[in-house]
Amino acid sequence: MIELKHIEKTYRRGVETVRALRGVNLTINAGELMAIVGPSGAGKTTLLHILGCLDQPTNGDVLFDGVNTAGMPESQLVKIRREKIGFVFQQFYLIPGLSVFDNIALPLLFSKKPAQRKKIEQLAEMVGLEHRLNHAPAQLSGGEMQRTAIARGLVNDPAILLADEPTGNLDTENSEKIYAILRRLSNEGLTTIMITHNPELAARAERTVKIRDGLICP
Amino acid sequence: MTSYLKLAAKNILRHRTRSLLTMLGIAASVGVLFAVLSFNKGFTEGLAVELERTGLHFMIVPSGCAHEVAALVLHGAVIPKFLDTGVMEHVEGTAGIDLATPILVAQLPDQQRGKIDLIYGIEMNVLEAIKPGWEITGTIPRHEHEVLLGYEVAQHDNLQPGDHFSSPAAGVDLIVAGIVGYSGSQDDAFVYLPIQTAQNLLGYPQSATAIGVKVDDPTRIGAITESLTSTVPGIQIVTMGEVMNSVSNLAAAARALSLAIVLIAILISAVGVMNSILMAVFERTQEIGMMRAVGASRWDIFRIILNETTILALVGGVVGIVLSTLGARLIEAFVRSVMPFVPSGDLIRFDPIVALGSVAFIFVIGLCAGIYPAVKASKINPVEAIKG
Ligand SMILES: Nc1ncnc2c1ncn2[C@@H]1O[C@H](COP(=O)(O)OP(=O)(O)O)[C@@H](O)[C@H]1O
Ligand SMILES: [Mg+2]
């Protein structure tokens, strides 16, 4: 479904050049649950952002269902993000002034789709927040915030869900809940990629990809 | 349901105090802008009505006294020169003149009371026409031995209607017919007398400080004034149009100055808005990065931030106009105390066009102030904003 071919990414930090990715080859199959692991600074987030069409590789091709997104203008990338990608972050990034309902519905505003109450209620139910729809994010626990963020990531019916350390700020119990949700989504056919520092969760994924110094370890 | 407007409004509400203060800055400057714009309209209209009401077309004054005419018509002024006795006869004998009404304004020292009375002699019906806004306790004088007192004069001598007004001119006994209510203007300082009484009192029968003239046919004003100036020596003629012009020029100058100040105030509050929104943008960098990741384009971000500024500007503008309308009487009282020649009646009238114009103006200013923060926000690099 997604094919990364010799992806390189270099950042400029002053005079210094940082090679965050140094020739990553990776094929992601539809419907799989993949865990990406590796030490801090290895390039995991960079890889995820390139997969999610949020960032562009310095070199290499990103074939999304056969279409190369490397070098596409931002105006086209944003369309792909709206139609095919769901993002989940370690820090949740919910908007404090909006209710859980409106936070889940937020991406619909950008994809110019009407917010159907039914759909958002279903998503909330799926992540176990149907009773929290009118609450403000400040009234939620960390686990509930992350589940809201997952529902938000799903509202545009993406083909792939990209989660960057989704359990990084959560305790074991809440991490388990998040993992269970991702697992279920993947079982239902959603391609799910999760960066994690939690070896237990990584071990349970269908596939684990290890990154070190900008390269995939064999 | 979520919309760009709702999102922007919610963002504004996140920092209530900061937004409120910014909004009040806008409200204050728009309120003053609205007041200044409405004021000018009310002022010129009020002035036109007032001059119209005198029913006079032009004033004849001793030559060299043209500048005092506006003051004379609107609130009385002492002109140290008198028109010759012959002028009145001359004027009355001129063809095409419907009415000539003398006005006699003079100082009358009163040694006994140790003060100077300011005498204003005029036909009482003309006075009524010139001063429709006066609230008179008692009546306007109907007989030649009656007098109307300005508020301060009555206060000073503790006089009520029906009391005797002692005059140093021996043998003249005047009865107070009425007292003019407090105006805060020069009106308060005068003693108003029927013209004949004033002329007799001052010992200048037939003479006048000025003669107000009404002609039969207003289109012939030019011809009549020309013939008068050429035949009667020592006079100058000022038409009501000229009075209107000179007073409204004065008002226009005052307005230009106030407008300049108001515009600076608006500029300052716009900078305040820009600063406030810019702070909000920087604080929300990560959130903006998230929105980009979940499908917001640069343009979407631009719109959200621009909406925040325009909401602040619009709400501020509307609040400002409401406050200004509610406080109109206060502003008027202030203006009356600092401006000469202020016509009576409402100076500030709520005009929906002016209100809409002011709001539209601040809307545009808000848009301009919002562009920079909105561009900044739209240029935030999502990858850097959400370092995972
Ligand atoms: N915007 C950036 N500018 C400069 N260097 C960056 C930037 N983003 C990431 N890096 C560098 O790239 C490397 C990989 O970063 P990242 O992908 O965030 O690693 P990980 O997510 O595995 O911890 C790190 O050395 C990081 O410092
Ligand atoms: Mg990372």
UniProtKB/TrEMBL annotation, chain A:
An example molecular function term from Gene Ontology annotations: transmembrane transporter activity
Presence of keyword Transport: yes
Entry protein name: ABC transporter ATP-binding protein
Database matches in InterPro entries: AAA+_ATPase, ABC_transporter-like_ATP-bd, ABC_transpr_LolD-like, MacB-like_ATP-bd, P-loop_NTPase
Keywords: ATP-binding, Nucleotide-binding, Transport
UniProt GO cellular component terms: membrane protein complex; plasma membrane
Keyword Nucleotide-binding appears in the UniProt entry: yes
Domain (ABC transporter): residue spans on this chain: 2-216
Family: Belongs to the ABC transporter superfamily. Macrolide exporter (TC 3.A.1.122) family.
PROSITE patterns: ABC_TRANSPORTER_2
Organism: Pelovirga terrestris
Automatic annotation (TrEMBL), chain B:
Segments passing through the bilayer: 20-39, 256-282, 311-331, 353-375
Subcellular location, record wording: Cell membrane
Highest taxon of the lineage: Bacteria
Residue ranges occupied by any MacB-like periplasmic core domain in the UniProt entry: 19-229
Cellular component annotations (GO), alphabetically ordered: plasma membrane
MF terms in GO: transmembrane transporter activity
Keyword line: Cell membrane, Membrane, Transmembrane, Transmembrane helix
Coiled-coil regions, chain positions: none
Residue intervals of the ABC3 transporter permease C-terminal domain: 260-382
Bilayer topology term: Multi-pass membrane protein
Pfam families from the UniProt entry: FtsX, MacB_PCD
Principal place of residence: membrane
Similarity section: Belongs to the ABC-4 integral membrane protein family.
Protein name: ABC transporter permease
Organism, as annotated: Pelovirga terrestris
